[in-house]
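Long-time lurker, finally posting.

We've been working with Protein kinase domain-containing protein (Friedmanniomyces simplex) and I want a structural starting point before designing mutants. I don't trust myself to interpret raw outputs, so I'm hoping someone here can both generate the structure tokens and explain anything notable. Sequence follows.
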Amino acid sequence: MARSKMRWEIEVLKAIYMDDYEEVEVKGAWSKTADRSFKLTLRAFSDQDSLALLSVRLTATYPKTSPLLDVSGVEIFHERTQKRIRNIVANRPKQLLGEVMIHAIASEIQEALEDAVSARQQGTLPSLEDERASAEEVAAALAQEAEEAEARRLREAQEEEDRVLKQMLDDEVSRREKRKPTKAPVVKTDDDTVSFDQPAVVTDGNDSVQFTSVTLTSPLKTGRDEQLYLGRPQTDRPLRSLVAVKRSVVQKGREDIMQIESFLEAVRKIRHVGVLGLLAYRVDRLDAEKSQVTLCSEYADRGTLHDLLDMSQIRPSNARRFTINLLEALDYLHNHGVVHGSLSCDAIFLESKPSMSARLGKLGQWKLHLEASVPSPKWRAPEGENDAITGRRKTDIWQLGIVIAQMFLGLHIIDDYQSPEVMLGRLDLLESFEDLLRKAFTLDPKRRASAFDLLPAEFLRTNAEVLDVVSMQPTHDRRRPSSSMISAKRRSRHNSSNVAEPISRYAMDFTEMGRLGKGGFGEVVKARNKLDGGIYAVKRVKQSPQLLDQVLSEVMLLNRLNHPYVVRYFSTWVEDDFSGGIVEDTTTTTDETTDDATEETTSDGPRMDFGFSSAGGLDF
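Top reply, 14 upvotes:
Generated this for you. Predicted structure of Protein kinase domain-containing protein:
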């Protein structure tokens, strides 16, 4: 019955409105629906240009249910006319429910349009052009109000951000003030100056100045057994450089104190851009059980990495740069027989000059058994703590892995997950970033990578995000490789500009003159550089992508060698081997050959093939 009424009314509307009736196709979820949709162009009786467009959709249960109506084109009319028409569309379907109603509603809209035309002709309403102009003015006013509101919103957001930052700074200052004891200790005049037995050197601008005494200017941190002061070296001329002086009370026997002094002497000789240098130290016996250790070190003006991460997340580019700084510093320490022992975000200091950089500090704190930031038990290194240098080196790598995870994922990462393995299993990390962390968190310390092994990691050579945003598969459905089985699947490598090179750099910059030798891992050719005319030995090594990190480790080691009796190294780059479809690592690693060698070996001359099988890498 309802469908027959619907069809009858539609046929009537077609006959009445003729060309002003327009059928609209309706598609459901399965391309079949009983709904009918059409549009009616409703015109005023005395002015055919005054019109409105009524969009109608009749549901399968019409007229028992109200139709879906929408009217457009009434914006050019007076506000009173717009309100009347919209009231008709909103209220009349409810009043006529159960009856066919479209023609009645359309007629009432036409009457409203006719009344508007009549009022306009009689002068009681503005003309159509005036209404359009008024509508444009209203629209312009609304747009201006929207712009002003947006500008006001941005200004308020900036003020709110400034307020929050100021509040954070005030809270930090208040928190540090609360750490100070209620009753400040009275510093005697003779305690304002600390003297050291060893002469120390501090850099002031471009000059190196020697000193043996430091004037304590202000306390930075005070505790029961530890005080940290800001000091200024005493010299014959005023200095701008500042130093940090820490006084710690330890309970150690005579033999332990002697070991501590030996260790501090070794740390004092360490000089590296990534290490906050220990300038001087002294150990004073207080009584039979207690001793006071005074350490004078370089001062970092940006606080610790923990303070920075506690306030905000750092950008991935800065985190990568800090990671490389720490790896290079840790590799330098380990090569000089020194371990850190208590590496954490609290032991990493930030310096702003000449540019923001991260430096390792608090060296030897594990020897003094001072209070340190200790993670939860499952985040500690599985080998535990021991005094052996070799074991401590591997523990440094594990602790550095925690620092790297916190730099990229936040300080809370060790609280959100029970262990590194749980974190790696649940987070959808980028493959190269996960590979870096798995090398640092290898359970077997003998198989754990060294700082030098982590330096050529793929993740540190790219600008990719930490989380794998490409994958849409749920995290709990993905199977992760274990720490002993790391996937060999790699992404394609690019050059330093992150753009794949369609043309070989070797072919563009060098002219090959002959082969000098060949091994099981590649060949060495003699080539002339087209720009400077020099003759070089070029080692061409073909490697699969998953072994590129190993090759780059040897490249970094080769770059560090500088000796008259070691073949000079120049450059390394990566190219795609278009003939074989695998990555080709091309290395220019030797000094220019002599003129005699040039005359003896030509492209047409005899080739000297090495008779032994190469063990791999970049051996010449």
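Before you design anything, note these points.
Residues 181-190, 471-497, 581-585, 590-618 have pLDDT under 50 and may be disordered.
The domain at 505-600 is CATH 3.30.200.20 (Phosphorylase Kinase; domain 1).
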